Amino acid sequence: PGARGARPAPRRLEEVRPDARRAQAIREEFVHAWEGYKRLAWGHDEVLPVSGRHREFFAEGHPMGLSIVEALDTHHLMELDTEVDRCVSWIKDRLRFDIDADFQVFETTIRLVGGLLSGYLATGEQVLLDRCTDLADRLLPAFTTSPTGMPYRYVNLRTGRVSGATLPLAEIGTNILEFGTLSRLTGDPRYGRAAKRALRAVVGRRSPLDLLASRMNVESGRWADRTALAVDPPADSFYEYLWGAWVMFDDEDCRDWFRLLTAALKKHQVERVGGLLWFKHVDFRTGALVNRRQSSLSVAVLPVGGDDELAADYYRSWTAVLDKYDVIPEEIDYTRLAALSRGNDLRPEYANCAFQLYWQTGDPYYRTTAWRYFQNLREHHRVRNGYTVVTDVTRRPMPKGDHCPAYVFAENFKWLYLTFSGTPRFDYAHGYLSTEAKGLRGLRRAEGRAAAGGTR
Ligand code: DMJ
């Protein structure tokens, strides 16, 4: 694609030299987590591996088998084909969306729509695409009934009733990759179009400094606060998806919006402390300082954006936090690298960033640090029935909580496995993964799987 001042999307390693020993160790730990889920929580959304209980993620009393949908393409990439079949069968037999409950549009999109799409792309099972289309049709009213085109926060999957008019940036604008992919696969442009309209509506409301605040009322189209968070949540994946739409769909508007907005945040929010790069929170109209907090989730955003130097610097900042605590706390005061929120909810973002940067540069530094992340994960989060969150990274031994978030099955082990395995099931030259690590491009089918179609 060539356009005004276009720079190609970041170059990537076309193949990753396998480190079979490390890849196998990562795969074993994924299987350990999965077996705990299967034993204690099969069919439910998430396992509580310490107490042996389970919980639902979207709506009480409505199990969606979320961990199953999240795990499907990870099993595929790791060539755990019996588990792929087990997951597909469960979805075919049990997963239905005619549910009288409010579902959060953002989480439903990145986890379930994305999971069904990547499952379809991995296996060719038509039933997965059919379920995905049914679900997306039920989500669409969140976009189409909004006067601004920016989605409501919740939608009742049975009735289409929408609710929640004020929501953060990430929830408004993390859908174009899933919806655009669905439009491509079905030939129905409504999904991608709705997602693009929402992005345009946000960008059109930027401040004269070209900064975005963090929460919007999608009915009035007015901001509900004034704080520009840069790549911190709940803004984070909003930026990721602008660039992603350029890489996946050659969308030049999204590329230009990404560049415009990130140039502004570089100008007004970058701060260097002791040689480390951070992004201060500022008033989006004046640029005045609001605070110097930083969330560990933000590390995953920049490497997607073609600014290798900035992304590499930011990764080094978070590596300093990893070095200090072994497990990165949820939130820090970056002036002192002090933990403000001391837990870690089994966060995948550091591994996500390591993979992206390794993929883009081939620099072994990213493998060395990713391996350190993995060793700490195994040391501090592993329990008899899988993996669990920790509640205070400053104490030894780290006290454990009782929860294995479903994204662990989609993300942590997959990012690590892709970094070390060089799996033939992933096309490193052309692949693309979503914010939830769903393979939306470049998944290679197993031999013997249908090229398209499959059983219903
Ligand atoms: C995941 O659902 C996704 O990575 C999302 O982008 C942010 N939050 C979790 C993981 O921390």
Characterization of the model:
This protein is 46% helix and 12% strand. It has a single domain (20-441), classed as Glycosyltransferase (Alpha/alpha barrel). The strands form 8 sheets. It has a 3-stranded antiparallel sheet with strand order 3-4-5. The longest helix is centred in the first third of the chain and has 22 residues, at 20-41. The protein is an alpha+beta fold and 456 residues long. Helix 4 packs across helix 8 (176-186) and helix 10 (236-249) packs antiparallel against helix 11 (252-269). Residues 1-5 and 452-456 have low confidence and may be disordered. Bound molecules: 1-deoxymannojirimycin (DMJ). Residues 237, 297, 347-348, 407, 411, 435-436 line the site of 1-deoxymannojirimycin.
Please specify the SSE layout and strand pairing.
Layout: H1 20-41, E1 46-48, E2 53-55, H2 66-77, H3 81-94, E3 102-104, H4 105-123, H5 126-139, H6 141-144, E4 154-156, E5 162-163, E6 166-168, H7 169-172, H8 176-186, H9 190-203, E7 215-217, E8 222-223, E9 227-228, H10 236-249, H11 252-269, E10 270-273, E11 276-279, E12 281-283, E13 289-291, E14 293-295, H12 308-325, E15 331-333, E16 338-341, H13 349-361, H14 364-381, E17 382-383, E18 386-387, H15 407-410, H16 412-421, E19 432-433, E20 439-441
Antiparallel strand pairs: 1-2, 3-4, 4-5, 6-7, 7-8, 9-12, 10-11, 12-13, 14-15, 15-16, 17-18, 19-20
This protein binds 1-deoxymannojirimycin (DMJ).
